Amino acid sequence: MRRVVITGLGLVTSVGHTAEDTWEALVHGRSGIAPISHFDASAYPVRIAGEVRDFDPSPYMDRKDIRRNDPFTHLAVAASRQALAQAQLEISAELSPEVGVCIGSGVGGLTTLHEQFEVLHAKGPTRVSPFLIPMLMINAAPGMVSQLIGARGPAWAAVSACATSGNAIGEAWETIRRGTAKVMVAGGAERAVTPLGMASFANMHALSRRNDEPERASRPFDAERDGFVMGEGAGILILEDLEFALERGATIIAELVGYGSTADAHHITEPEPGGYGLVRSMEFALHSAGLRPEEVDYINAHGTSTSLNDSTETDAIKNCFGEHAYKVAISSTKSMLGHTFGAAGAVEAAVTILTIQHNLITPTINLEHPDPACDLDYVPNEARHAEVNVALSNSMGFGGHNASLIFKRYA
Asked: If residue 334 lies in a helix (H) or strand (E), which one and from where to where?
C-alpha cells in the first residue's frame, strides 16, 4: 500500500478565517462562542453558538458562484483554496485526472433551505429558486471544489453526521493507498446555525443553555457540562501519495498512517455504553498504522460537552489504551469552537496535525469541576508544550458512527 502524507491544510472557524489565526486563538484558549448574530434568536431557548462571523467568500469565488452556492459551500471552497495554497499544488491538465475530492457535511445547505421555505410560504411555489436543490445538496461542496480547481479524479461527499469529515479524510486516504488518485482534497464544512437548525437541536435538549456566559458554555469532561454548543466552520486537508509529493518537492507536514471506522448499532443519538464501537474504531486505526497504544502521544477527543459522550469516550479510551489511557494527553477543540458537526472531524484533524508540528497541545478550556467519571488527562485550561510524534483524532456521529485517524510526524 502507498504511504499518504499531508502537504496542506485550510481552516475557517469561529476563532479565525485561516489556519494560522485559528491555531493562534486555540493555543491561547480563546473561545469563539458568543450570542448568535446570523438571525434574531431572542425567542429561542438557546441563543449562543460558535458562528463564523464576517466571512467574505469573494477572495475565493466569483460573485456568480457565491450567489449560486450555500454558505457551507463557500466555507468548503475557502478552506480548500487555503490548503492548496499551502501545498503549493498547481493542478495541470495532465495532473487533473489524478486529483480527487471528498468533502462532507452533516446537513448541507440548511441556510438556503430555510430561506426558500420562507419564499414558498410568502410568495408561492413559482418563486422558489431553481438553484435550491443544487445549493441544498451535500455533494455541492465537493462538486464546486472539483469544478473550481479542475480536479477530475474521484469526487464525492461523505455523510455520517458528526463523524462525516473524519470518514471523508479516511476514505480519501484509502483512495490514494489503492492507487485511484495521487492527490485528494478532503474534509468537511458546516453552516447550520440557522433558525431551523437551532430550533431543532435546542428542542432535542442537546445544547447548553448558558446563554449569559457563552464563552463558558462548552465544557467537555466538566461535571457541570449541560450540552454541546453549535459551531460552524470548514477544515480541509491535502493528501498526497508520498512518492508523488517527493517528486514534486512538496513540503510534508505530517503522515496519515491509520484509519478506523465502525458503527455502534445501538441508538440513533446515544453512544454505545462502554464506547465499544469507538474502541473498535481506534483499534482498527492502530492496527492499520502498525502501532501499539503506548506509542500514541496525544488524542484529540470528540469531546462534545454532553454527559453521555464525554463519559463514554473516556471509557472507550480506557478500554482501548489500558494503563496508557492515564498517561496520554487528551484535549477537546470543541471547548473553544463549539461542535462544527460535519466539519468537526476535519477541523480537529487539522488541529491534530498542527499539534504535531508545534509540539504544543491546545487546552480543554472550562474544565473547572472534574467529573469523577472523566478522570484522564484532558490538558485543562492551558496549552501544554510536549513532544508529540503520534496523535489520534476521534469523531463520533448521530447514527452510531465512529471514525478514528492517526497522524504521525513525517520521517
From this structure: helix 334-337
Contacts of 123 (CB under 8 A, 6+ apart): none
Fold of 255-408: Peroxisomal Thiolase; Chain A, domain 1 (3.40.47)
pTM of the model: 0.97
Beta strands in 70-150 (DSSP E): 99-104
pLDDT digits (tens, 9 = 90+) for 157-190: 999 999 999 999 999 999 999 999 999 999 999 9
Catalytic machinery residues: 162
- What CA–CA distance (Å, rounded) separates 393 from 244? 26
In the chain, where the domains are located = 4-247, 255-408
% of the chain at pLDDT higher than 70: 100
Mean pLDDT of 77-84: 98
CA angle 126, 129, 131 (to 5 degrees): 140
Q: Grid coordinates representing 391?
A: 496523535
Residue indicated by cell numbers 469531546: 303
Contact 346, 82 (CB under 8 A): no
